[in-house]
Design goal:
- About 35% of the residues lie in helices and about 25% in strands.
- The chain is an alpha/beta fold.
- Strands 3-2-1-4-5-7-6 form a seven-stranded mixed β-sheet, with helices on both faces.
- The N and C termini lie far apart (about 35 Å).
- The structure holds S-adenosylmethionine.
Length: about 200
């Protein structure tokens, strides 16, 4: 990806995504996670402090070596074993039906093959397994959506392939997930083009 994408961007994300408004959403999205969990786009482990006591093991899927290094202190301090078990959410190296739950926070915007990743998650989740997610995506307001389409090429270049216009709930339905709960809102303090979030739990039937 080059020096900026490999070295600089993971450090920016580590700081920019560790703000109060994000931490509040991390706490909400991690609530109820239990058993063996796969987290795609693990990043620098900013969700680790919010894993509930009911989680027994976490398989981290993260392509960026620098992000994984930045995660070291959080991984070491975690109460549950966490291993870096994969590099690409769209190609998960696990047998089918391996996990009780999955976690994705602000990652479905970035994975190039997002449909492939959701299909992989369906495969590795046990029947009835749940994907906990908080993701930004295509806003319902036409004016905001227009700007999202305009700015998306720049956003992709500046932020490691991050899309502004992915329709998160529709993508989950398209992959065969059943939405159990979803809260959709503009994130406090964020520009609207970036701040239309969907936070919820989707069940793999
Ligand atoms: C905006 S960051 C979010 C990081 C983390 N989930 C968080 O909440 O802080 C997007 C993450 O997706 C990761 N990513 C990019 N392509 C990926 C892929 N194909 N599979 C899994 N993760 C990927 C990036 O390296 C980065 O860590």
């Amino acid at each position: 990806m080059g020096l900026y994408g490999d070295q600089v961007l993971p450090r920016i994300v580590n700081v920019a995504c560790d703000v109060k408004v994000a931490r509040e959403q991390r706490e909400r999205v991690c609530a109820g996670l239990a058993g063996e969990v796969v987290e795609i786009g693990f990043g620098s482990g900013l969700n680790v402090p919010f894993y509930p006591g009911s989680v027994t093991r976490v398989a981290a899927v993260e392509p960026a070596d620098v992000a994984w290094k930045l995660a070291a202190s959080r991984v070491d301090a975690a109460r549950v074993p966490i291993s870096r078990a994969g590099l690409d959410g769209a190609s998960l190296p696990f047998p089918d039906d391996s996990f009780d739950a999955a976690l994705s926070t602000w990652t479905l915007c970035t994975i190039p093959d997002v449909r492939g990743a959701l299909g992989e998650l369906r495969g590795v989740l046990r029947p009835g397994g749940r994907l906990h997610f908080v993701e930004h995506g295509l806003a319902p307001d036409a004016g905001v959506a227009r700007w999202q389409h305009r700015l998306e090429p720049l956003q992709k270049r500046m932020v490691g392939g991050c899309h502004l216009t992915r329709p998160i709930v529709e993508l989950l339905h398209g992959a065969g997930f059943e939405l159990e709960q979803v809260d959709r809102y503009y994130e406090k303090g964020s520009p609207r083009v970036l701040g239309w979030n969907s936070l919820g739990v989707a069940r793999s039937p």
